[in-house]
Amino acid sequence: MVLTINLNKMKKKLITYSMLALGLFLTTGCTKNFDKLNTDPTAFSATNFDPNYLLTTAQLDYTGSQDFSYDTWRADLIYCSTFMQGFATAIGYWAGDKYQSNPEYLAAYWQSDNGLDGAYYEQVRPIVDMVTTTTNEPQYNNLHQIGRIMKALIFERITDLYGDVPYSQAGEGYYGKILFPVYDKQQAIYTNLISELQDATSKLNPSGDIPTGDAIYHGNIAEWQKFGNSLLLRVAMRLSKVDPATAKTVITSLVGKTFASNADDAFFVHDATGGRPTVNRVSQVLQGGPENQYVKWSQTFIDLLQGKTLPTDPIAAVPDPRLSIISVANYTIGTPASGDTTPADQQGQPNGYDLNGGATTLGNAPGFISVAAYSCPPFSMTQMGTPTFILTYGETELLWADAAERFGIGGTAVSHYNNGVTAAMTYLSEYGSGTAAVPAGSVTTYLAAHPYPAAGGTAGLSATNTQYWILTNTMFDFYESWSNWRRTGYPVLNPVVYPGNATNGTIPRRFPYPLIEATNNPTNYTAAHNAVPGGDTMTGHVWWDAQ
Q1: pLDDT 10s digits, 488-541
Q2: What is the CATH number of the domain that holds 411?
Q3: Buried/exposed 500-525: b ≥16 CB within 10 Å, e otherwise
Q4: Measuring CA to CA, which residue among 280, 192, 216 is closest to residue 58?
Q5: Which domain holds residue 10?
Q6: What share of the chain is helix, strand, coil (3-state, %, to 5)?
Q7: pTM
Q8: CA-to-CA dists, residue 127 to 75, 117, 336, 420, 477, angstroms
Q9: How far apart are CA 539 and CA 536, in angstroms?
Q10: Which residues neighbour 257 within 8 Å (Cβ) at sequence distance 6 or greater?
């Protein structure tokens, strides 16, 4: 039954890529024909342009930039995945594995080196344009509200990575003639994100317009209502340490309004035949060289799934049943069916080693086997047409378990924990292409061996957020894995100590601001640069990161 539901959902979310290509042409090519567009009455203009195309563009670009996926490659994978010991690699330019600073890579999510990629150019610009052009346009009410929700989603990630960032004036170069936007304080950004999500979600009308440019839920307004509330839950939980009173108030209002099953999962299905702009961004990187040979699951990650070690988690006799689905050892590049998926045979690679560095050479790592023998994601999870997961029911239930334990809101932590772990295992079939869900019996056996801690408290929060870390790692959403780890401190990870690292052997807490901002927006950059708690470095921290 689960498989049938998920397959139907995959079909439901397939995109009409001819429309997507047209939307991308219209949103990126219009400035090249400015004179024509302002003189030819048959050309697209403010009166006949369909803003649905802008929504499609922003949704696609949220999954990664249209260049060589530099933001995904550098921010999500090179840095966040290795900070969180989800992935490990000995490739020298993967600076995050060793806590080294590469300013160009750390700036990639904000703006790529060519100035025409990154979140502000490819995500903020079209979504601000769409929200602005649909304001006070009743025929586009639902499109407008979905745009506001997407804008909150986009900015949550940007501010989580960097802290204080341009927000209220971002994307206003044309409409507001603002060329040097101020950096809003993260506290103010989060206050506005909460307000925007509450208001936009409440104004969605299931009987109203059906947005044709929606590539996530295809205009299903009921799903967007649940998505808006589920995203609001995540936003509010970011404040659990720095502003618990606000967090509790917001979370209390969301009981019974968030995702109810895996059928609500938000993901973007990619098109492997549409060329570079439409493929899955993570897959694009992992199938390239030398990543296809040298990027492996981390030893920390595999050891935990096998029930071996982590300081605050008990050793259990029952390994995680996800292992046989998400990991393969001795994989032969280019041969999808090759390799060994036996859980006991999986072996993660230790972080903090390189290919040629004396004592830090991978071959000198304790227990080194061979590069090829270390475990990596299977081909079924890294095909070019696999979906990018944006927000899932499993995440939402684990956030509710945290809220129940921390604040006593929304039911029992045990119930939400069991729901979250179950969903985190069964959602895997949504990858498609032969990827199987974990059987119900295996989930039951695992939960019996790894129950929610009877003592609750710190042990409960550790178990819950360790499961959140596992889930977001399998989603390849290492941005979210890192953010939730910074919020909670779980799981407890042993830092890498690599010679000459930039953090004195501590796990990084934020991305420094792009150096190009000192030239592009000097006054506002300087003020923000000087105000970062702990300094504008990888060891500074964002407002909600109450260490």
Answers
A1: 999 999 999 999 999 999 999 999 999 999 999 999 999 999 999 999 999 999
A2: 1.25.40.390
A3: ebbbeeebbbbbbbbebbeeebeebb
A4: 216
A5: 2-286+381-531
A6: 50, 5, 45
A7: 0.91
A8: 21, 15, 38, 31, 21
A9: 8
A10: 225, 226, 229
